[in-house]
């Protein structure tokens, strides 16, 4: 009879407790699917006495996750503490050095230290598996690494932070301001302890950096991401974008261009009829494009106890079945290329919202400024005047960020702008 696969779980919060519950509830199913028992030997968290709603009595307890990671009765170290450094990283490094495989949901750690940890894992002939780290319950890592392995990946994009998508869709459906929705999301416990991780786009950018590495065979390069959060998205822009047939999403896009690896995480407009445009609430969506497959759209829960634990268990089961100890990012870490970061110079259409002084020739001046910068207008709408100000929306034809920047600078000098214009990229999806 096969030996059981013995887990050591560090971190018993939302995800850790979810994993314990699945191991307990589905013991027979897990055995049937892997041919061996999957058991928990030991656990670790900060507070031993906390009621976590699940019995932990039958597991050994370690205060120190490093001690847990190196126990003789642990085959797989499951890291569910979080944080890019500190106990999570120390314990993962210790587990690998002690010859254990690692399963983690920690996107921050992988985005910042993935290359170094992958090298350590592969030198020790072990692996790190991380299905839960990107888009929670959506099986995007396995899809990229396994199901689409025969494709040259041309673009990966998606909405990968549920809290931001909740906030943006809630602003639109309830007509609330950014500040009102932020307070609501915070009150509901939807935001990370440091909300900047969510609204600043950092959490989503961690996920994009991991996907890029797998998709393009490059070292994880979080620093190379052009990053902007949702803080400056206003209810006025949400309404105006809707009027022009778009939704605003915190969209991550990664693609190889002639200038290098372009990675962006920023608020973008997408057509409201597209799958990304129709994504509501806290749900995530990842779109993968490959030369043979065309486009694949994955949609599902990006967070929460059950969905995230489900993804962690898929990695545990791979290890229980054996033979799943491939390179961490799909290619040996020593062979991953160092990418040249490319800023988004590829032409794209843009949305411009501006308030013009309501005087003769104001609109003509703006049209002239755009024309002189080589920016062509696709659609335009002027709304009823508000006192002495005329609200104007413009959708441009494809233009480069450089040409748009030139036009925006000239607008600032035009003497007809009542307020600074808002410019947002429109992503073709
Ligand atoms: N929550 C989610 O929906 C998702 C989470 N993730 C990732 O999963 C990981 C875990 O997230 P989540 O469960 O939400 O986090 P929680 O904050 O709910 O839980 C963290 C756990 O780590 C424990 N912990 C903290 N510091 C230490 C330490 N020094 N030693 C031992 N244990 C420690 C805490 O102990 P105590 O309980 O005693 O305080 C707690 O049990 C993170 O990397 C997160 O980014 C990924 C996708 C979705
Ligand atoms: N704060 C994250 C949790 C899952 O990574 C989100 O809202 O998507």
From TrEMBL:
The keyword Iron-sulfur does not apply. InterPro entries: ACT-like_dom_sf (IPR045865), ACT_dom (IPR002912), Asp/hSer_DH_NAD-bd (IPR005106), HDH (IPR016204), HDH_cat (IPR001342), NAD(P)-bd_dom_sf (IPR036291). Belongs to the homoserine dehydrogenase family. This is Homoserine dehydrogenase. One of its GO terms (biological process) is threonine biosynthetic process. Residues 351-429 form the ACT domain. Pfam families: ACT, Homoserine_dh, NAD_binding_3. Pathway: Amino-acid biosynthesis; L-methionine biosynthesis via de novo pathway; L-homoserine from L-aspartate: step 3/3; Amino-acid biosynthesis; L-threonine biosynthesis; L-threonine from L-aspartate: step 3/5. It comes from Sulfitobacter sabulilitoris. The active site is at 207 (proton donor). GO terms for molecular function: homoserine dehydrogenase activity; NADP binding. It comes from the Bacteria.
């Amino acid at each position: 009879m096969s030996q059981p696969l013995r887990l050591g779980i560090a971190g018993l919060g939302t995800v850790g407790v979810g994993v314990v519950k699945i191991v307990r509830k589905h013991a027979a199913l897990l055995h049937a699917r892997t041919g061996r028992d999957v058991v928990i030997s030991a656990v670790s968290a900060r507070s031993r006495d906390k009621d976590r709603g699940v019995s932990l009595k039958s597991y050994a307890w370690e205060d120190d996750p490093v001690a847990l990671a190196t126990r003789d009765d642990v085959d797989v170290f499951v890291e569910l503490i979080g944080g890019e450094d500190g106990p999570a990283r120390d314990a993962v490094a210790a587990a690998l050095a002690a010859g254990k495989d690692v399963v983690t949901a920690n996107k921050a750690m992988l985005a910042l230290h993935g290359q170094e940890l992958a090298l350590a894992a592969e030198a020790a002939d072990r692996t790190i598996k991380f299905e839960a780290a990107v888009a929670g319950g959506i099986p995007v890592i396995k899809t990229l690494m396994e199901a689409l392995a025969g494709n040259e990946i041309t673009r990966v994009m998606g909405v990968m932070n549920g809290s931001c998508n909740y906030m943006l869709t809630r602003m639109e459906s309830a007509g609330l301001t950014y500040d009102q929705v932020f307070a609501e999301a915070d009150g509901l416990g939807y935001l990370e302890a440091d909300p900047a991780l969510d609204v600043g786009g950092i959490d989503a950018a961690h996920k994009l950096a991991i996907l890029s590495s797998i998709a393009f065979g490059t070292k994880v390069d979080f620093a190379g991401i052009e990053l902007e959060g949702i803080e400056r998205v206003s209810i006025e822009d949400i309404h105006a974008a809707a009027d022009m047939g778009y939704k605003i999403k915190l969209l991550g896009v990664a693609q190889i261009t002639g200038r290098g690896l372009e990675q962006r995480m920023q608020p973008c407009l997408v057509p409201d009829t597209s799958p990304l445009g129709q994504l509501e609430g806290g749900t995530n969506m990842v779109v993968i494009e490959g030369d043979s497959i065309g486009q694949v759209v994955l949609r599902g829960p990006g967070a929460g106890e059950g969905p995230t634990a489900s993804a962690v268990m898929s990695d545990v089961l791979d290890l229980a079945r054996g033979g799943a100890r491939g390179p961490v990012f799909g290619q040996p870490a020593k062979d991953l290329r160092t990418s040249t970061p490319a800023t988004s110079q590829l032409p794209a259409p843009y949305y411009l919202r501006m308030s013009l002084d309501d005087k003769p020739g104001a609109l003509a001046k703006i049209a002239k400024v755009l024309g002189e910068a080589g920016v062509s207008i696709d659609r335009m709408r002027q709304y009823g005047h508000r006192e002495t100000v005329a609200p104007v929306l413009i959708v441009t034809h494809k233009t480069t960020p450089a040409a748009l920047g030139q036009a925006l600078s000239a607008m600032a000098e035009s003497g007809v702008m009542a307020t600074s214009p808002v410019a947002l990229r429109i992503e073709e999806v």
